[in-house]
Design a protein that fits this description.
- The complex is a heterodimer.
- By secondary structure, chain A is α+β, with helices and mostly antiparallel strands.
- Chain A has 13 helices and 11 strands.
- In chain A, the strands form 2 sheets. In chain A, strands 1, 2, 3, 4, 5, 6, 7, 8 and 9 form a 9-stranded mixed β-sheet that branches.
- Chain B is of the alpha+beta class.
- Classes of the chains: A alpha+beta, B alpha+beta.
- The interface between A and B is large, with 49 and 39 residues.
Chain lengths: 442, 375
């Protein structure tokens, strides 16, 4: 028995003792109260942190258009090429500079607080992240559909910090989704806000909280009622959950299959619960709890087409591939100077084959992840099938990305395990590439 | 613009190579795997056809000659926005496809030896006339010098009276060494001067000083002969020295090594071709067994063999893209030593399956792994 306990520990011990007494007592059973009591206690622990979703702005259409606007696709190109075009290179450079100068120094604190600093998010918006996927007629800045550009910007941001990058990029995913699949009304209601001075916080919510989650087997339900839809269920690890003003939420539409719905944070029946995770904590992940959440008929995206949903899932996975590549690059760039400077037994540890081979493998697998990701997003832009390529890229980024995170820690030894060096955070962040669905979209 | 697809202009070449792989290489694959050291005469006619249709030898069948020089012949690559897809890419794609058929047969394609790469890279006009179009093997490795090519001990002594070089030493692992018309031998003019003194000499296969010691019995690529030679006062006319006879302290060896930067992606391509053959067969077997590969659902939500297949395929895709990038860099005259090495390292692992040892698909892998792990 510890001789000294602080107040919190003592009250917790007292609470547990009481709980143990309550559980052991047959009083509850005699009174038929066991089940309701358990339900009450479960509810109590679950609802402690739950809050209403952010109040958010009022979204309203500015202009009526007859048909939705779409960014044209680039069409097939003939030659193999791994170089970004001039515009992409400029964007890449400016985003990377921002990532290394601004995101990197803020990363440790944001990771601890599970939140990105507001001024940083505002600065990130100035990079125009939310404008890449918006058609030019609606205020976008990129002439053609470019998942490649999105991926390059995501990669560059995550080179600074993956958690902050996820927080910055989540709204862009929603803007792109509405650009791709929104109807004329949805586009005129939301997109002008995403190209405005202060784009709304937003995120794509697909993941659910259960083992072996499969985005094509959703537990969140949508049923048709009173000319609209009613949603029930829980979405998990949604970035920017607390300050999100509009979400795109995946739910199984009765009789139709998985579908996407636009849900504004003000909607009744939507509440938020913080869900701090192992990694990408600065992304402000939380659960969206949908209880009898009533939506108008106009909330359904892409007419509930299963092909739209499948495309959305794959574009989301490619978003995670891109940030995994960026963070993998951060690991490599950190580890190389470390192993060449760190001396043991009178020489740099890089002189040992076990170290040199490990670093070489990080570089090889990282380039492989990058090329596989580029191939998939380039197929998106060329209007080609890309499910297979996205899956292969995802698999590489999940397996090799995690290995790179782990090797990064190992190369620094004990130093890698403590928070003095960022590799432990990158290890936690890279783990996300293997489990996340939604949240991002290129 | 970023695009990592097979260039359209090479699609026909890939199709043709695939046809050759299916109709000739696969048909003879097992025969010469069993009959090691027997000359695959079916290839003579094929080689004649390929040369007839493409005098430069570049393309479908070229192991070495298509990768000649530093970046391939400019005429082969159409330039668009300063971007070139040329003979390095074409050779890689054709060769990968042929390797899908059989790597051993590919390696022993008549007149397509690695030596021809060295000849066309550095030979003078007169030498090109004499040696062009012949089957040339390459003799670099020695019992005491493998990947460390600079450590070779074979000597070339200048005989002033006869105006000849006299070569002495031992060479091993010479691909097509027995079947070739010529062997390009690396030897040192002066071992005390290190890399700078290493030169290559064209030795006629029937030179009495070039003595065949033995042919190796191998794990795989058995259709291709691997020869060991002893050079015993092997006399070579001075006209057969490739490049400058001077010992230049700088630069000479780097030029020699550059041959490897262009051929390394091709070796990776062989592994990629064989690995694709394994994946294709594995997929057929899985389909027969009722296992579907689903590219939408997460691998963890699929049967273990399907998840394993996606994993293997993703590593294969990784190797393939790394290799295409290295070849693309060679076509565009970008230094690619790093990227070519990355490609070969990754492709070797994929080809041998050593990267994953979980064994779930070991049976499927074993059923098609003959002649696999030689990269």
């Amino acid at each position: 028995m510890a001789p000294q306990q602080n107040l919190a520990e003592r009250s917790m011990a007292v609470g547990l003792r009481a709980l143990n007494w309550l559980a052991a007592s047959d009083l509850l059973d005699r009174l038929g109260l066991r089940e309701p009591t358990e339900r009450f206690l479960l509810g109590a622990s679950k609802t402690t942190a739950r809050t209403a979703a952010s109040a958010g702005r009022t979204f309203s259409a500015i202009q009526k258009r007859g048909t939705p606007a779409r960014q044209p696709k680039a069409g097939r190109t003939n030659l193999f090429d791994v170089t970004p075009d001039e515009e992409q290179r400029m964007l890449q450079d400016s985003v990377r500079e921002f990532a290394l100068d601004r995101l990197r120094p803020a990363a440790e604190d944001a990771d601890a607080r599970c939140q990105a600093p507001e001024e940083l998010l505002a600065q990130a918006n100035e990079l125009g992240l939310t404008m890449v996927g918006v058609p030019e007629e609606l205020g976008g800045v990129v002439e053609r559909r470019s998942a490649v550009t999105s991926a390059l910007m995501s990669e560059a941001l995550a080179q600074g910090d993956m958690g902050l990058a996820v927080g910055c990029l989540a709204p862009a995913g929603v803007a792109t989704a509405i650009g791709l699949w929104g109807d004329a009304d949805q586009q005129s209601t939301y997109l002008h806000e995403f190209v405005g001075e202060q784009p709304p916080a937003a995120a794509l919510a697909i993941l659910e909280r259960r083992a072996l989650f499969d985005p094509f087997e959703l537990e969140a339900r949508a049923r048709q009622a009173n000319g609209g839809y009613v949603l029930d269920g829980v979405k998990s690890l949604v970035p920017r959950a607390a300050d999100g003003e509009v979400f795109i939420i995946a739910a199984e539409l009765e009789g139709r299959g998985p579908a996407l719905f636009i849900v504004e944070s003000k909607t009744g029946g939507l509440s938020i619960e913080p869900e701090p995770a192992m990694g990408v904590r600065a992304g402000g992940t939380g659960s969206l709890i949908l209880e009898d959440c009533k939506l108008p008929a106009t909330a359904l995206v892409g007419g509930g087409d299963p092909a739209v949903y499948a495309e959305c899932v794959h574009l989301g996975r490619l978003g995670w591939c891109a940030v995994a590549v960026g963070t993998g690059q951060a690991v490599l760039d950190y580890v190389i100077p470390y192993v060449t400077e760190r001396q043991t037994f009178g020489e740099p540890i890089a002189n040992r084959q076990s170290v040199a081979f490990t670093v070489a493998n990080i570089a090889i697998e990282l380039d492989a992840m990058r090329l596989a990701t580029y191939r998939a997003v380039s197929r998106v832009d060329q209007g080609m099938e890309f499910a297979r390529e996205a899956t292969l890229a995802r698999r590489l980024c999940a397996e090799r990305g995690m290995a790179i995170g782990s090797d990064g820690v190992q190369m620094l030894g004990g130093h890698g395990y403590v928070k003095e060096h960022p590799v432990e955070r990158w290890y936690r962040d890279l783990r996300a590439a293997g489990v996340m669905e939604g949240g991002l979209l290129v | 613009m970023i695009n990592l697809e097979v260039p359209r202009k090479f699609e026909q070449l890939v199709d043709q190579a695939h046809m050759v792989a299916t109709e000739i290489f696969r048909k003879n694959s097992r025969k010469y795997d069993l009959a090691e050291h027997e000359y695959p005469r079916e290839l003579d006619m094929l080689a004649a056809v390929i040369e007839g249709s493409n005098p430069s030898g570049a393309g479908a069948g070229a192991v070495g000659s298509g990768s000649s020089g530093n970046g391939g012949s400019p005429s082969a690559g159409k330039v668009q926005d300063g971007n070139r897809n040329g003979s390095n890419m074409a050779t890689l794609l054709g060769l990968t496809e042929l390797s899908w058929g059989d790597v051993g047969l590919l390696l022993t394609m008549p007149r397509q030896g690695l030596g021809q790469a060295a000849i066309s890279a550095v030979a003078n006009e007169e030498q090109l006339q004499r040696f062009g179009g012949k089957w040339a093997a390459m003799a670099i490795t020695e019992p005491e010098a493998g990947s460390d090519s600079a450590a070779i001990r074979t000597t070339a002594k200048w005989d002033e009276d006869e105006q000849e070089y006299v070569l002495n030493g031992e060479k091993i692992f010479v691909t097509s060494g027995d079947r070739a018309d010529l062997v390009v031998v690396w030897a040192s003019l002066d071992p005390s001067q290190g890399r700078a003194a290493i030169k290559s000499f064209v030795v006629e296969r029937d030179n009495p000083g070039l003595k065949l010691d033995r042919l190796e019995h191998k794990l795989g690529i058995r259709a291709s002969d691997t020869a060991n030679f002893v050079l015993d006062d092997c006399r070579v006319p001075k006209e057969n020295l490739l490049g400058s006879p001077e010992i230049a302290p700088k630069g000479g060896f780097a030029g020699v090594m550059q041959t490897f930067d262009n051929t390394r992606p091709l070796v990776a391509g062989m592994a990629i071709g064989v690995a694709r053959a394994c994946l294709d067969r594995t997929r057929e077997l899985l389909t027969e067994a009722g296992i579907d590969i689903d590219y939408d659902r997460p691998p963890h939500a699929q049967p273990a063999p399907a998840a394993e297949f996606i994993s293997m395929e993703s590593d294969w895709e990784a190797a393939r893209l790394l290799t295409m990038r290295a070849a693309w860099m060679a076509d565009n005259r970008k230094p690619n030593s790093l990227q070519a090495s990355m490609a070969k390292a990754k492709a070797g692992r994929v080809g041998s399956g050593a990267w994953r040892s979980r064994g779930r698909s070991a049976t499927a892998r074993a059923s098609c792994s003959r002649s696999g792990p030689a990269t």
